[in-house]
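## retry 2 of 3
previous attempt timed out at serialization; input unchanged, resubmitting
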Amino acid sequence: MKFHAAWGRGYGEDLAANGGFASQEELDLRLAYEPHYSQLQGLRIEVEYIDWKVFDLDYPSGDLSQLRAIVNYSVLLL
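## retry succeeded, writing output
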């Protein structure tokens, strides 16, 4: 089992001079499970949570929160 966490923050003050970017903050959390035994070998399950916020008072909020679940199963063909 693996766990990954990342956080970042970017600062922008002048949207015109900053290429249209406002101050932003992002949090990413990911949990991955990949068993390496018996009939479950080849299975990978990931759960990911993303929270992205835009700090800009002049425009509508660009906040985004997502929860993703990804299931993969590899099959040996040869």
